[in-house]
Amino acid sequence: MALPLKLKETFFISHGSPTLSIDESLPARHFLKGFRERILNQKPNAILMISAHWETSEPTVNSIRGRHDTIHDFYGFPKPMYQLKYPAPGAPELAKRVKEVLMASGFTTVHEDKKRGLDHGAWVPLMLMYPEADIPVCQLSVQPNRDGTYHYNMGRALASLKDEGVLIIGSGSATHNLRALGSSKSVASWALEFDNWLKDALLSGRHQDVNNFDMKAPHAKVAHPWPEHIYPLHVALGASGEGTNGELIHHSWDLGALSYASYKFSSLNRPS
User: Fold this and answer.
1) What percent of the chain is modeled with pLDDT above 90?
2) pLDDT of the residue at 270
3) How does pLDDT run across 152-176, given as a tens digit for each residue?
4) Contact, 91 vs 124, CB < 8 A?
5) DSSP calls for 86-109
6) Sheet holding 137-142, edge to edge
7) CA torsion angle for 139, 145, 147, 148 (degrees, to 10)?
8) What is the per-residue burial (b if ≥16 Cβ within 10 Å, else e) of 215-230?
9) Residue 24 neighbours by CB under 8 Å, 6+ apart
10) What's the half-sphere exposure (Cβ side, CA atoms, 13 Å) at 8?
11) Which band of pLDDT confidence, cut at 50, 70 and 90, is reported for residue 183?
12) In a 10 Å sphere around its CB, with 0-12 CB exposed, 13-18 middle and 19+ buried, how is residue 50 labelled?
């Protein structure tokens, strides 16, 4: 009899521009297409996606029966991008578990959305990572009115789901200032400095510094004028457990200031 799948890893994926869905010139696209072979060769029972593109005032899970709709929540891009579909099955049982563990950890109000499909922060990376769209997916929203520690604690509450074979992925961006993007081949100094600070903090396990990035990191307000694209990282980091060191599993740049840095967090000293 096969042992039940337990996962040690959580991930933060920088999903960058929606053109990741079609642009073969982006190194991050090829990284994600090779994810199963090079990064995680176990097939999860279900996937919990925390996407920067679902913002709510209180935690909300989507509880979908049947297949997900594909939300094309971007504007002015090439027509083929709007024809892409990722009809992954919903995961209503996982949505129920997410709600249970969050409420048991002090998140007093957790909503269920029974209609919302997958936004591009979820389906674009998943389309590349798991193109068969055969793994049940649940999405969890971020709360931009809260801080990094709040989202880290959300991740800590979700950590036990890994023992149920749930792959927890935060999908956002290591840097995200759309007004600063351009065509320069060189990377803006503020973006480099913030990106390097974040890498050093994650690789050395400085979780509290990451939680307080807005006060600790150089150029934090320039790198993230609004925080929704970094909060999925806090959730993934919290779900990995205290004292976890991150591993940089991909790094590339686009448009002079958009970091595609992606990280793996592996739980340490897990009880048997």
Assistant:
1) 91
2) 44
3) 999 999 999 999 999 999 999 999 9
4) no
5) --PBB-HHHHHHHHHHHHHTT---
6) 111-113, 60-62, 137-142, 46-55, 166-172, 9-14, 262-266, 246-250
7) 30
8) eebebbebbbeebbbb
9) 30
10) 13
11) confident
12) buried
Work out the average pLDDT over 204-219. 97
Structure tokens at 67: 């297949």
Rounded distance between C-alpha atoms, residue 204 and residue 45, angstroms = 30
Alpha carbon 100 to chain centroid distance? 21
Total length of the chain: 272
pTM of the model: 0.96
**Nearest by Cα to 257 from 150, 178, 142, 167:** 178
Helices (H) and strands (E) in the chain, counts: 10, 10
Q: Which domains does the chain have, with CATH numbers?
A: 9-266 (3.40.830.10)
